[in-house]
Design brief:
The protein is an alpha+beta fold. It is built from 5 helices and 8 strands. Belongs to the nudC family.
Length: 271
């Protein structure tokens, strides 16, 4: 899971140079236009480059509300003692112990929160203060996860939504939190962490993929789009226009060509 504060110093320095938020945001979206396929509309659903119509706007809106602070602070009532139950875990309101990134493309429950990308899953579970590794029992199988305290208290238990690469699972303690990282066995979006949870609406997830996870072909196409956008900004011909000019130059004086004399592309108008 990417640390959302990793680039704070760089972004803050940029903000100070821009002086105002509108100018700062203008630079951000200008960069997306010049150097990425963010504004490129993918008309073919199988195209690895570009976004489906409307997804760019939807993504910006989702991220805006993801980081929007709550206007009201509601005091939570005391939590009753846990009792054994087979009922589904209830989705919880925002918990100050969990950050928005802890439930990115996932959900938050009473004792834990989980997030996902197309390739991996991260779980953050609340544990008592001063808990050590010896006080925990963490068992991760291909299709099941179990986290218990030494006294038998269940923190998280159930059958996973999909299979994971259990041999590559990693867990660590950070203050009063247990962090678990799982690699998915296949590239698919999970609609829950464990099957006893309420199911997520997959269509509401941010399904964009990081640049480095794209195929070499897709990365090359994005770089070509970036190059063409920069050429357009400078008033220079794009790759398609250069290719057309090359074909025109080679066929200029060929037999049957409507052109003759020295090569002069300015006399040709392309539609």
């Amino acid at each position: 899971m990417v640390d959302s504060t990793e680039h704070d110093d760089l972004l803050f320095a940029m903000l100070k140079e821009c002086k105002t938020l509108p100018i700062f945001l203008n630079h951000i979206f200008g960069f997306l236009n010049r150097r990425t396929d963010f504004y490129h509309i993918a008309t073919d659903p199988n195209c690895p480059v570009g976004l489906p119509p409307g997804l760019a706007e939807q993504t910006v809106k989702q991220i805006f509300y993801k980081w929007k602070p709550d206007d009201k602070t509601v005091e939570k009532p005391p939590t009753p003692p846990d009792t054994p139950s087979a009922s589904k875990p209830k989705k919880q309101p925002p918990d100050p112990k969990f950050t928005p990134s802890d439930s990115y493309n996932g959900a938050t429950y009473e004792h834990y929160s989980w997030s996902q990308t197309l390739l991996e899953v991260d779980v953050v579970a609340k544990i008592p203060e001063n808990t050590t590794a010896k006080d925990l029992s963490v068992k991760i199988a291909t299709d099941r996860i179990e986290v218990k305290l030494k006294d038998g208290t269940v923190v998280l238990e159930g059958e996973l939504c999909e299979k994971c690469k259990h041999n590559d699972a990693i867990w660590s303690l950070e203050r009063n939190k247990l962090c678990i990282h799982l690699d998915k066995s296949r590239e698919v979006w999970w609609n829950c962490l464990v099957k006893s949870e309420p199911k997520l609406d997959i269509s509401s997830l941010d399904c964009s993929r990081p640049y480095e996870e794209l195929s070499e072909e897709a990365q090359a196409k994005i770089e070509e789009l970036q190059w063409n956008q920069e050429r357009k900004r400078l008033g220079l011909p794009t790759s398609d226009e250069l290719q057309m000019q090359d074909i025109l130059k080679r066929s200029w004086n060929c037999e049957g060509s409507p052109f003759s004399g020295p090569y002069d592309p300015s006399t040709v108008k392309f539609n």
